[in-house]
Structures are given as structure tokens and as C-alpha cells.
Amino acid sequence: MTVINKPKTPVLFDAVSYKDLALTATNQDLDINDVATTGFVPNDLAAQMQQASMQASQLLKSLSHPDRLLLLCQLTQGEYCVGELESLVGVGQPSLSQQLGILRKDQLVSTRREGKQIYYRIASDDALAVLQLLYERFCAKTK
């Protein structure tokens, strides 16, 4: 068993030691309280944390484009067709279609067809939660 020096401030994981901990932790009976006291992470917990960080990173990457963020903010108000979104957010074609395509690929929005119109709505609870927090922190202050 490898002993890792604990930092002076209570930090459970950092970018360098995280992978080392996952590789050196051999005792699968550790729980989250053991992580704080021993510095070791069970392999299954480390894998879960890595998967969660990848999902969060992908969500943040999708939200990082200003046009996609505007579209998602508008979609928090309900379902809209492409023409309505174009006029509401001021993003013209073909950029609008490109950004909506990325949001669809990332499974942040879903669609339904009604005749010739395609309607978009938010499909991700995680995205909606982040958008609500962003609204509280940035948009509510401007009113």
C-alpha cells in the first residue's frame, strides 16, 4: 500500500493524485469516510467519479457557446419552433440550425414534428438545473 501525503487543507482529490489513488487503492471495503481519513479511493468510486466528471464536462462544453446558451435559456420558457427561436434569440440561419444540431447530438434538447414545423424543448434535467442557477446568478440581477 502506497502512502500519500495529505495536503494541509482538506482537499479530497486533485488532478494528479486522483488517478494515482484510483490505481493504488486496493482495499474495496473503503467507504467515503475512509477516503477522508486514508486518502484512498475505492476503484469503483473512482470510476464513478471519473464518469460523472466526464458527463459534467460535456454539459459545460455544450453550454459554453453563447448562441447555444441563448437558445437553451429561451427554451427554459417552453417549447418553440425554429422560426420562433430565430426571432426570439436573434440567431440567424445557418448558425441556428448548426447550434440546434449540436444540442440535439448532445441530447440537451428533443424535438417533435407538427406538420412542417419542428418544435424544440429542453430534454436534460441536468442542463435545466444548470440553466436555472445561471439565471439566478446572472439574469435575475438585471431586472
Structure characterization notes:
This protein has 143 residues and is mainly alpha-helical. The protein has seven helices and three strands, in the order H-H-H-H-E-H-H-E-E-H. The chain has a three-stranded antiparallel sheet with strand order 1-3-2. The termini are far apart. The N terminus is likely disordered.
User: How many angstroms separate the termini?
Assistant: 57 Å
What kind of sheet is the major sheet?
3 strands, antiparallel
Q: Spell out the helices and strands N to C.
A: HHHHEHHEEH
**What percent strand?**
5-15%
Structural class comes to mainly alpha
Shape: elongated
Low-confidence stretches: 1-28
* Helix fraction bin: 55-70%
Tell me the total number of β-strands. Answer: 3
Average of pLDDT? 81
Q: How large is the count of helical segments?
A: 7
Compute the CA-based radius of gyration: 21 Å
The strand line-up of the biggest sheet is 1-3-2
Structure, briefly:
This protein has 143 residues and is mainly α. The chain has seven helices and three strands; from the N terminus they run ααααβααββα.
Key terms for this structure?
single chain, 143 residues, mainly alpha, three-stranded antiparallel sheet, 3 strands, 10% strand
